[in-house]
Write a structure and sequence with these properties.
Mean pLDDT: 83
Shape: globular
Distance between the termini: 7 Å
Number of helices: 21
Strand order of the largest sheet: 1-2
Strand content: under 5%
Order of helices and strands: EHHHHHHHHHHHHHHHHHHHHHE
Largest sheet: 2 strands, antiparallel
Structural class: mainly alpha
Length: 504
């Protein structure tokens, strides 16, 4: 599951004026763009063996193909929101959507693994320009009860998109239509993207941006550099034997993030518009919440990847079967999210964030013993489905509520900036999870011990969940109401002009 990153709320339209009659086509274009992102975040997970056969991709190359997209997406999200404020959300949406579609084509025709990695990084940049424009465009064209209905549509549709990704990817690769193999998982974006581009260009009304909005390019550069210095050694370290340069890069990354915090405070003091509201970093509950987001989603995305790798490489599942093998996790996540979002979070408060990881740990423990008891000659997904599904239920309980509890620690006028940062940390945390869990799995899988590689990944996940569990005690006891998170209340709608989110 992902977080939909969207632009800051623009002033609500005048409810006495006649609404734009083709506004529902705007919602269609927004949904298509978001589904493309969700598909690209997960559809490549089942392409590993095919990439190895076609391009000679090794473990590190595969980690970059999967995690590189999330890295540049997360590093650029807040900047993308600012660009939409300055140059107009429609313009940035069209630029982002066109660039995303074009970079998908480049990925599909990549001649080697190095080119594919580079094009995936570009695709993430395009996504960072595209995704932050959604809520602002919707608020410009919907209001009142209609806007509430719009948000009600997003959750199920995007949740389905997250589930469909591995299944669709497996179907396309196994079908090998026209001999395209893995390339079809990127080519599928072309008809979708072109159609959405035509709809958006035709039906989204033009509105000028605010040229008075300043774009903090120095802060954006510091974020990108710090993220790269962190993910690069995590991806390369295992294969290279953790040389000195990997540790120096990680130390430089920590220094870069610290420098970013100082630079943001100085920019605000000088009257310039920072990327992040400096007051956020002085709120302990918010800062530990950032750590919780990174820990939780790093562990979740990492174990999803390891599950798929285990099925394909360790158990020789086809791409299609590996995609279907993710269904117990997806169904469990949907059940946990429905229970948590419908009533549990409201009734027991932050305890839902403590029960969730405990349920995940129980699922991981069950999965450990299921792996230990596997028959060496016969295997089906039913052998591990119970543990995987239970872990998914715990994950869904956290996903449905986590953002609301962290946002409860910030003031109304800080919601835009806060949720933008959380969305970015979620994406970067997923990229780090791919690097760490991929390295842990391949350390044993490279010698043919796939079960131990999977079990070692479960140990890492357990450590991350234990740390996340401890962090939850520092979060507010009650979450922020759903309408506040979307900027629907007058107080929130008057907030910062950064990035907001919709948790799904």
């Amino acid at each position: 599951m992902e977080v939909l990153s969207v632009s800051a709320p623009s002033p609500a339209p005048d409810e006495t004026a006649e609404p734009y009659r083709r506004r529902w086509l705007i919602l269609v274009a927004m949904l298509v763009a978001e589904i493309m992102d969700l598909l690209d975040a997960s559809i490549v997970n089942v392409a590993g063996p095919d990439l190895e056969r076609s391009l000679g991709a090794g473990p590190v190359g595969l980690q970059w193909v999967i995690g590189g997209y999330a890295l540049t997406l997360g590093a650029g999200l807040v900047l993308g929101g600012r660009l939409g404020d300055r140059y107009g959300r429609r313009r940035m949406f069209l630029i982002g959507l066109g660039s995303f579609t074009a970079s998908s084509l480049l990925c599909a025709v990549a001649p080697n693994i190095g080119s594919l990695i580079g094009f995936r990084l570009l695709q993430g940049v395009a996504g960072a320009m595209l995704l932050p424009q959604g809520l602002g465009l919707l608020r410009e064209n919907f209001s009142g009860p209609e806007l509430t209905k719009v948000f009600a549509v997003f959750g199920p549709v995007l949740g389905l998109g997250g589930i469909v990704g591995p299944v669709l990817g497996g179907f396309l690769i196994e079908g090998d239509f026209f001999g395209l193999g893995w390339r079809s998982v990127f080519l599928v974006n072309l008809p979708i993207g072109i159609t959405a581009l035509i709809v958006a260009a035709t039906f989204v009304p033009k509105r000028a941006g605010d040229r008075a909005v300043r774009v903090d390019l120095t802060g954006a550069a510091l974020v990108v550099a710090s993220c790269a210095l962190l993910v690069l050694p995590l991806n390369q370290g295992q294969e290279d034997g953790w040389p000195l340069w990997t540790w120096l890069c990680m130390a430089a990354s920590a220094a870069g993030f610290a420098l970013f915090a100082v630079q943001q405070r100085r920019a605000a003091a000088a009257g310039r518009a920072p990327l992040v509201t400096p007051g956020l970093l002085r709120k302990p509950a918010f800062t530990v919440g950032l750590g919780g987001i990174a820990l939780f989603f790093g562990g979740l995305i990492g174990t999803q990847l390891v599950l798929t790798l285990y099925l394909q490489i360790g158990r020789h599942f086809t791409a299609g079967d590996a995609g279907l093998g993710n269904l117990p996790l997806a169904v469990g996540t949907a059940i946990g999210g429905a229970v948590s979002g419908a009533f549990l979070a409201d009734r027991i408060g932050r305890k839902v964030l403590q029960i969730g990881p405990l349920v995940q740990l129980a699922g991981a423990a069950a999965l450990w013993f299921e792996l230990d008891g596997l028959d060496a000659t016969s295997f089906s997904i039913r052998d591990i489905a119970p543990g995987v599904a239970v872990a998914g239920i715990g994950a869904g309980m956290v996903i449905a509520a986590l953002f609301s509890f962290i946002l409860a620690a910030v003031d109304d006028d800080e919601i835009g900036s806060a949720s933008g940062v959380l969305s970015a940390v979620q994406a970067v945390g997923g990229s780090i999870g791919v690097a760490v869990f991929g390295s842990v799995f391949f350390a044993k899988a490279g010698a043919g011990d796939f079960v131990t590689g999977f079990q070692h990944a479960l140990i890492v996940q357990a450590c991350l969940l234990a740390a996340f569990f401890a962090i939850t005690f520092l979060l507010p006891r009650k979450g922020r109401p759903e309408e506040d998170q979307h900027g629907l209340t007058p107080e929130a709608a008057a907030g910062d002009s950064d990035v907001q989110h919709l948790s799904v």
